[in-house]
Amino acid sequence: MNNLQRTNERAGFDSHPRLQGKRNRGRQSEHWYAGPRRAHGLNSLISVSRETLQCRRCGAAICSIGETLLLPRVRAKVRTSQNPVRPGIALFCLFAAVLCAPRITHAQYDQPLVSEDTLTRVSDHVYALVGFPNIGIVVGSRATLVVDTGLGARNGATVVRVAQKLAKGPLLYLTTTHYHSEHTTGEQAFPPGTVLIRSAVQQQEMDKGLPAHMERFRNMSAQNKDLLQNVKLRAPDILFDREMKLDLGGVTARLFWLGAGHTKGDELIFVEEESVLWPGDLVQSKLFPMMPDENASMKNWLTILDQLSPLHARLIVPDHGLLGDGSLIAKEHAILTELQQRALDFERRGASAEDAGRQLTSEFHAKYPDWGNYINIPNAVKRVYAEAD
Question: Which numeric CATH code is attached to 116-281?
């Protein structure tokens, strides 16, 4: 019995029937939910079905959306019910769960090992391993698509193990949202028959920039250094220019590139039938944007967000941080626009990019105290200045 089974047996339900067997109906229990709090401030998203949890902090019902549930770190009572939760009520209850949770701060994330314990069912065909980063799995009747690999072969092997347990068909596809180490360096753990797909621009950027990025990650911690030993990468099987679609059997994944934002080769993945979007680092929940170098673009990042709005994505699986709904796109657009306009105000007054970055870091940190990664603001200001010339 693994940790996921122990945790959910005590709570009276399992994580996912394909992995863990039958649910226990009619039980009540009290349980402190365990999960990757270091990465998310709230506990893990736990997959449940037809349960209602009552928050003992505020009395709110905490329910599921489909089979995905966001659990704050509060003591909750599991009350099983034979009646499914209606989607509209479930969405309201999800926000109630967030509102009754303690205030959280998004610190710089640790780089923990990918864990099967964080497996979350997002929709009928879509799953996520929640961690650093959030890894996607789309399961069709003929093929499975994995989005991102985790940091190094050890994490990649965990992802493969979970994907194989969930798979219904023989084919395995792998794609990556961008070239950074935690998204790509686990690919060597995937079986030889895996079909690796990337945009041509991302592959070019990866060939040029990944060695230096891995070296920076190795220098961050002993854990990273161990995970990134003997990284061996291979050439992709398929390179696409702008867009391609994968028919996985009963579900379709659209892979597309809209230009530079966080990196030059940002790739997005949209599961059309279930309206689930992987935006990479381009859309996140309460995390200031990272623009690490001259390949990032504030202007085009905003243009990309404009192009995402017509998709009317129902659910968002960002690369880092909390999973959310389609409103995250508008929220990301709003914070980037505000940051861009404030930086341009400083630029028009003749302030240096360095001074503007320092002042705007203080300003936005005070205005948005529950947002994380505010140390990224100076680099974002530099990109605004560069694009104003």
Answer: 3.60.15.30
Q: Give pLDDT tens digits for 313-326.
A: 999 999 999 999 99
Question: Using one digit for the tens of pLDDT, what is the confidence trace for 282-318?
Answer: 999 999 999 999 999 999 999 999 999 999 999 999 9
**8 A C-beta contact, residue 336 and residue 302:** yes
Residue ranges of domains in the chain: 3-100, 116-281
> What does the alpha-carbon distance between residue 195 and residue 291 come to, in Å, rounded to a whole number?
30
Q: Which helix H or strand E contains 5, and what residues bound it?
A: helix 3-11
Q: Phi-psi region for residue 108, left (φ > 0), alpha (ψ -120 to 50) or beta?
A: beta
How far is Cα 209 from Cα 71, in angstroms, rounded to an integer? 38
User: Rg of the chain over CA atoms, in angstroms?
Assistant: 21
User: Token pair for residue 198?
Assistant: 């990337």
CA–CA–CA angle 251, 332, 245 (5° rounding): 20
The one-letter amino acid at 328? L
Q: Is the dihedral of CA 233, 234, 237, 241 positive or negative?
A: positive
Can you give the pTM of this predicted structure? 0.73
* Three-state secondary structure call for residue 196: strand
- Checking DSSP bridges between strand 68-70 and strand 135-139, what pairing results, if any? unpaired
Q: Which of 318, 162, 163 is nearest to 248 (CA)?
A: 163
pLDDT of residue 29: 27
Q: What is the pLDDT of residue 186?
A: 95
Handedness of CA 3, 144, 42, 9 (dihedral sign): negative
Q: Scan for tokens 């863990």, then name that residue.
A: 20
| Tokens linked to 327 | 């409103």
Calpha distance 66→241 (Å, rounded): 34
> What is the Cα–Cα distance from 70 to 325, expressed in whole angstroms?
12
**Mean pLDDT along residues 14-21:** 39
pLDDT above 90: residue 111? no
